[in-house]
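Protein: Thioredoxin peroxidase
Species: Fulvivirga imtechensis AK7
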Amino acid sequence: MSLVGKKAPLFKAPAVLNGEEIVESFTLADYIGNKEVMFFFYPKDFTFVCPTEIHAFQEKLQEFEKRGVQVVGCSCDTEETHLAWLMTAKDNGGIEGVTYPLVADSSKTVASNYGVLAGDWNYSEEGELIFEGAPVAYRGTFFIDKEGVVRHETINDLPLGRNIDEMLRIVDAWHHVEKHGEVCPANWEEGKEAMSATRDGVADYLSKH
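Structure follows.
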């Protein structure tokens, strides 16, 4: 079930801040009323596709920050594993240099609440409790506004990496909607013409394109 238009599930969980500090009770609630959040899940630490995305978010971090958006990552690994990976050099497959928060969802409750857990607990025919599927998160991305409402979500399967520039485009589109009260047509980018949500406004836009 989509979370778009609904309040983002809040939580308290361990996280690593600034690439070096473990905190026990990180929460998205600290940003509500102050910043928007680009909250993304990735499957697992010390893997191959995941660091490319994590570094890509870091490379664009200033672009998110100048738009008033806090980037937060999350996986089902422990905070200790996050820290070990953050202390591993990029040349060795690590994510050294990443400064935005990485949440440790070892209980898998955050991933479950956001609908991105790639498996679930079930009982076998013998009555044994087993986990079916992968005990990791899909590549879910959630753009959360200042009121704590999810305005955009995408969920990629495990092998499919994200386009970080598309995440920035979503932020720009939302800001345009908020500022001008217009809606953004297909392939809209910052600086391009948007359109009025009225029938006349749509007709006027289409007549020019």
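Remarks: The first strand starts at residue 13 and ends at 17.
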